[in-house]
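S1.2 Input.
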Amino acid sequence: MEYNLESMYGLQDEVAVITGGSGSIGAEAGLNLASLGAKVVLLGRNEDKLQTIQKKFQKSGIKIAIDTVDILDKNSVQAAMKNVADTYGKIDILINSAGASHLEDAVDFSEEKWDLIMGVNVKGMFLSCQAAGKYFLEQKKGRIVNVSSVRGLQGRARDMAYAPSKGAVNQLTKSLAIEWAPHNICVNAIAPTFTVTDINREDLKNKEYHDWVISRIPKRRFCELHYLVGPIAFLCSPCMEFVTGQILYIDGAWSVA
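S1.3 Output.
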């Protein structure tokens, strides 16, 4: 078989589903996968935000589809995936970018916050993988990219749910990769360091916290959303056929410092 870079990296007519589609990472990933030829469906719970993103893309000449979903509800997730498969005839790519976070002292940490964060970050991701995985197994083909974090490797004070949830994301990624490898389904994750998104924007306005984060990253700057796009596109592309079960740290050397 003859290979060229265009065929190895292109996503022409691939159908990509992105959870957390109204969030910063999900929207950015959707925009860029669409620019590579993919048919993109953004899933999220906030229809107004999804419509705003859709209109913004349309002004740039990029068409995407949107659908609302409750990723904590198995029936809702399965219905959303079925709608995509019925519309396009297949699902090729799943990007799980929905996420939640909360910082609080351990002895006071809210049970509601724990349940929400573990639910969105782990249960919702599993339900999405499970629902899309049924189509991948039928097709004998699929790509999953989960959004993890450096927190999946390193803990942090007052981070009693987000860090554990990202550790679970890493293990979920590896377990699915092992089970589905024989079926030509690749499951990987990206693990960014602090990236300015809707989740942490307010936290980073605190000068002490801001300066600590910068001092901890050897590159001495925050990760930008566009730094995540290339790795996500790579993990979705044909060229990564033999790459699965990997956690790709996009962290300016945070994890090795």
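S1.4 Remarks. The chain has a mean pLDDT of 95.
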